[in-house]
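Appendix B. Raw example, untouched.
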Amino acid sequence: MPPSKPSPTSVSIDSLYNGPVNCGNGGYISGLLASFIAGDAEIRINAAFPVETPLQVENSDDGIGVYLDDTLLGSARRIALALHIPTPPDLDSAQAASQRFDFIHSSSVQGCYVCSPARASDQGLRVFCGALDTVVEAGSHNERATLTGQNIVAALWRPAGSLCNDQGSVDNIYIWSALDCPGAYAINVAEPDAGLQLLGTCSGSIKMPLSPNHDYIISSWKISPNSGRKRFMGVAIHNTAGELMACAKQIWIDVGSALPGTKQT
């Protein structure tokens, strides 16, 4: 595998990139930590990442760890991601699913950086995932909860030009960010009575650069049955021709009714 990239001694997350109140969005955190790794990466989030706070970055044998004082908040390591990906929804199905979007990440006034409809396109990614027709027609909640290997939600996403890097393509940190929330929305559709979900592990692979102001289809599915509080989800980004652009394998943790490490409003 290629070596890790040189790491700065500290990082800080701008408050723009929040998920829960005063904490970084899980996808943005994953993208930030993955930026220190060449190629595919596995990100583990151990605790909430506070915004506007200097965090220490330390090298490890196969990646990096990020600390607040002596507390390990998260880590990144090199992997080769293997993931079976369902056939993506077509453009019309993804667009129709986006119309069924039901906002669930609204713990702050501005809402989540990735999925808040309250944000303008230069302040958030505006990824609006909703249930696909096949899932809406699946019947009872119990039938939905057993879905495995089948796309549950989808969104049509058009990244803004403000997300570009120096090469004119969408910066990888925003691609990782866009891969985050769809997993939680798929859980919510499949299990409406589930508790609040926190991203625990995200393994990601970016296959091809994304261009700004182009449409992409994002979808999410259940990889395997639940294990206790853990939910195992897959997320993919395809272009409208059906080519895979990026994908992620996630473990979400059901935390019940309250988000730990945040100030509730």
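End of appendix B.
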